[in-house]
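Please review this one:
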Amino acid sequence: MKIIHCADLHLDLKMLSGLDAEKRKIKRLQLLQNFFNLLEYAEKNDVQVIMLCGDIFDTQEPTKRTVNLIKKAIINHPKITFLYIWGNHDSRFHLFEEDELPKNFIVFDERFSSVDFDDEITIGGVSAIRTLDANFYSSIKFEKDRFNILMLHEPINASDDYFSGVYTYNLANKNIDYLALGHIHQTQGGKIDSRGVWQYCGCLEGRSFNDVSPLGTKKGFFLLDIKMKKLNSTFVPLSKFDYRIVEIDIDEKDDHFKVLEKIKSVTKFLGADDIVRVVLKGRHKEENPIQTELIFQNLEKNFFHFEIQDETETDFDFEKYSKETFSLKGEFLRTVKASELTNAEKGKISLIGIEALKGEDISL
């Protein structure tokens, strides 16, 4: 039996910081297209069950257009059973609340319930609960001789701003073979006990630079293939527009052209669908300023979105300037040096001040 474990589609996402209006529209449409691509994959690969582990929508009030498209897509795939739990974003939202539930769409609410498939597999679930107590853990009941899956939308072995968290020591010896989790947007996994494992599938596509895909990876879902109560789990990449953060180390010998060469060397592995943030680290000399605007103009056409953050420190010879007794520049730099600013802040302010005193364009 083949099962898809996915979560955190965040359809109708409101916040997409950094992107212009046209790119935000494209990104939102892609989030929806990802679900249809998932269904196409499921159909081609004879998937029988899709577990939707919460935050399918980014809001409890998604647009009617998006809701109707999702409903029709589910109805148009009657051979696939959709198991749904809500998360903290789509809390208690019900796709078919005004209509009769189709037979292939099953909702697990805040009380544990389960469904049997074939002769050996049981899938249970509980929608998002802010605080889990002893009654929650005692309500989870699976038969020992079946392959058992539990769907939750919770942080594991920790609490956060939304949930008190689910703890593996409370799930041990509950006959759980696979804990299918949503809520965390990165793939993570571990053991529950000698029998079972837990797994975050991540999201189908990142929402912001908080959902970065490391170089060489993409976001997607897990395909579970269960035969004779044995699990074979495969991660399937699906995302299109991936967020990437690239850190570039700068040293004092690097001038503008060396910095640009370093950035190109790393970002050559990225493409036109990537959303890229380059972060410059390290130190550079006053006489080798980094021209971030030039770097941006040189590279921004290569990616769906490109931005650059300069977090370097500038080395100033404050002792040299302090000897300029009747120099406005010297007085300014002596004042900056004596301030309680960090070294990084002193370097940035000193550089801006010198540019201003020279009558040059100021690079902020």
About this structure: Residues 2-237 form a domain with the Purple Acid Phosphatase; chain A, domain 2 fold (CATH 3.60.21.10). The chain has a mean pLDDT of 90.
